[in-house]
Amino acid sequence: MEKQEIQSKSHVLAIPVPAQGHINPMMQFSKRLASKGLRVTIVIFSSKVLKHTRRLGSVEVVTVDFVSYEGKLSSDDYSKQFRAAVTRKLPELVAELNNSSGHPINCLLYDSHLPWLLDTARQLGLTGASLFTQSCAVDNVYYNVHEMQLKIPPEKLLVTLSRLPALSPLEITDLPSFVQGMDSESESESEYSLLLNHVVGQFLNFREADWIFINTFNTLEEKAVNWLDSQRSVKPIGPMIPSFYLDRQLEDDKEYGPSLFKPNLDGCMEWLDSKETGSVVYVSFGSMAALGEEQMAEIAWGLRRSDCNFLWVVRVSEKKKLPSNFVEESSEKGLMVTWSPQLEVLAHKSVGCFMTHCGWNSTLEALSLGVPMVAMPQWTDQPTNAKCIADVWRVGVRVKANEKGIVTKEEVEGCIREVMEGERGNKIRRNSEKWMQLAKTAVDEGGSSDKNITEFAAELARKFHET
Ligand SMILES: O=c1ccn([C@@H]2O[C@H](COP(=O)(O)OP(=O)(O)O[C@H]3O[C@H](CO)[C@@H](O)[C@H](O)[C@H]3O)[C@@H](O)[C@H]2O)c(=O)[nH]1
Fold this sequence. Notes:
The chain is α/β, with parallel strands linked by helices.
């Protein structure tokens, strides 16, 4: 049998966490696997997925109705109900897909936040592969928490974590937010400690999974990757962004695919077209972060003070927090949309910098497109990403909050000016271009990430051939 034919008979079932920052890299990885000749079906458990997507390129998209997380349940209750629903539904779904496609599923590719899916893979006799959607630096931190939590008291552990051998020295405030508070016993932190258990739980069966993939690339996080790889084999496959934005070749690989948000673009691309090269600050805090009203106002006035053009994504749920009349009074310089085509925006020549919450996808997207950043981390892995943006890769500056935890309008203005103007801005732009090239090299044919994807596809095909 021809190699391509064998590979197309291998069938991967991919299960992301049903949040935009997790669906996007899983979808892109699925597309890359399909481009290597594998058959891939992605299943999204969410009632919020915009229903028009059934197939993207050669990836089949299946949606299963499941209540969305927002506000309805505590995260712990949500996790339990989600796990129960997925483990109940999956065997049924695998049987259905085996029948309907004529290509039995032989691999379960799951988000590392759902480690219990390895048990399901085993029960169904499938290869189990886990995709880590955050940086390898953050994975290093959580892995070490997992290994040391029971052996070292929390305050000592925090110091150890800030001096991990594979990472640059960190302040406590550079650690992921769920880790920063681990020495506190206060009642109000209890949701955070549940979330800490959840993220550290990614490593519960780290050694048992057949494959571990990370959405990063070797040159970006070389020491962190090598160190984690010394604990067990891990494969960087990133940056997982649609290939068009890296090599400008495939017009039909421009979109991630399934979205939980309705785009409300308000002429956003035309608006960008009308602005001068490098003159626009793009502002977005991803799909989850919710800022306080006071903070929203400081950003608003800071943008206004910077005197730059700005395109600001304010999700529908956040809109009411904007200062009154801000939208109307800013119409000359600013445009607000409830959701943007972020990659298209970042690739637009008029965008000069990205004020970001430093979600890992946004960080990789800006790096891959060479867009300098103003890093304004909110929670979870974002502080560690912000540290790398400002001090390791030197592709942006990081805002400082005041004693009340607020980033003032003066600070917002100052950081934007630092990136958009002057000598530091020039250096940041030069570094950004360097990382953009390295990102492209990693996923180009024969690059380090591409090789790892090819190896996986070939190994699945080999196993299929043996059975
Ligand atoms: O208007 C918008 C805003 C965002 N996006 C896309 O949505 C994704 C957002 O992902 P990310 O930047 O990672 O942010 P979150 O949605 O906040 O992602 C969650 O998941 C990530 C991966 O685990 C973590 O790194 C983040 O901290 C966590 O908040 C990106 O691909 C963006 O391109 C759009 O397309 N349009």
